[in-house]
Design goal:
single chain, alpha/beta, Rossmann fold, Hypothetical Protein Tm841, Chain: A,domain 3, 2 domains, 4-stranded parallel sheet, 42% helix, globular
């Protein structure tokens, strides 16, 4: 069977223990905080993430940079030179050109490395959605699936991921063009917390708003109750933008009702956090 490696990019959030123990490839992405330029080449440590989100609270501008096809060719070549094919899980095509760029790189790599291949999966996900897919891909590989079989199985699973987000700071949605300046101003004044999801074509969709964090958390838990399917997997990710208190609350509430869940709490990647702002929190899982 063809040897292969599983790769994710820095827009995803995954348990660092899984990344290390399973030798998951981690495709770097670039971001800025104010005047500081950084390359996110692994799951960023807590001190860096606190610095990042505190910088946002102090009004430092945060930006991300699109990966070029050349960067893909350069990164994937390291594995292909060793005779390994690559199973890559990209950020949703509804949020980025990442997947499209990987396909351009695939054509170039095929000419140079005809005996191995790049299988690129449009995750239709971000943050912990990529994390749950990576863990699924790891299980499949351990079970003896070929890269072709794993590609097919994980591709099917992308349509069963649910992301439920609470955004705390409306100004980040305003900068991204998702709400108007007037809506952001009024919403902030009235303490409204937008509730968003990633829809079935991988795009962000605002599905409601609640007044205050407590009601917003209750709404996230309600969506989980409605759509969770324990027959798929018990893996759940709670990703937060320096809002550990909210993440721990959600975890405790989930485990009260579903004690067998495997709940992982991670910081939200700066690649996604640059666009959502501090104190965001999300619940991500496979569902019906």
């Amino acid at each position: 069977m063809q040897d292969y490696v599983i790769v994710m990019d820095a827009s995803g959030d995954c348990d660092p223990k899984v990344i290390e123990s399973e030798n998951i490839g981690f495709l770097p992405m670039e971001y800025t905080l104010g005047d500081e330029f950084r390359i996110c080449s692994t799951m960023e440590p807590e001190d860096i993430m606190k610095q990042f989100y505190n910088g946002q609270r102090e009004s430092s501008l945060t930006k991300t940079t699109q990966i070029t096809p050349y960067k893909y060719v350069e990164f994937f070549s390291k594995f292909m030179e060793e005779g390994k094919s690559v199973l890559y899980l990209s950020l949703s095509s509804g949020l980025s050109k990442t997947y499209e760029s990987s396909l351009i790189a695939k054509d170039e790599l095929k000419e140079k490395y005809p005996d191995v291949d790049l299988y690129s999966i449009d995750s239709l996900a971000g943050t912990g959605g990529i994390g749950v897919l990576v863990q699924e891909a790891v299980r499949n590989k351990k079970a003896g699936m070929s890269i072709e079989e794993n590609f097919e199985k994980v591709s099917e699973m992308t349509h069963r991921i649910y992301h439920w987000f609470m955004v705390d700071d409306l100004n980040y949605l305003r900068r991204g063009g998702r709400v108007s300046a007037t809506t952001a101003f009024v919403g902030t004044l009235l303490n409204f917390k937008p509730i968003l999801k990633i829809d079935k074509v991988g795009k962000l969709e605002t599905i409601g708003k609640e007044r205050g964090r407590k009601k917003a958390y209750s709404t996230l838990l309600g969506y989980f109750d409605q759509y969770y399917d324990e027959s798929v997997t018990k893996d759940v990710y709670i990703c937060h933008a320096d809002n550990l208190e909210g993440a721990e609350f959600l975890k405790a509430e989930l485990l009260k009702k579903y004690p067998s869940l495997n709940v992982t709490i991670t910081y939200l990647s700066p690649i996604i956090g640059a666009h959502t702002g501090p104190d965001m929190v999300s619940i991500i899982h496979f569902g019906k």
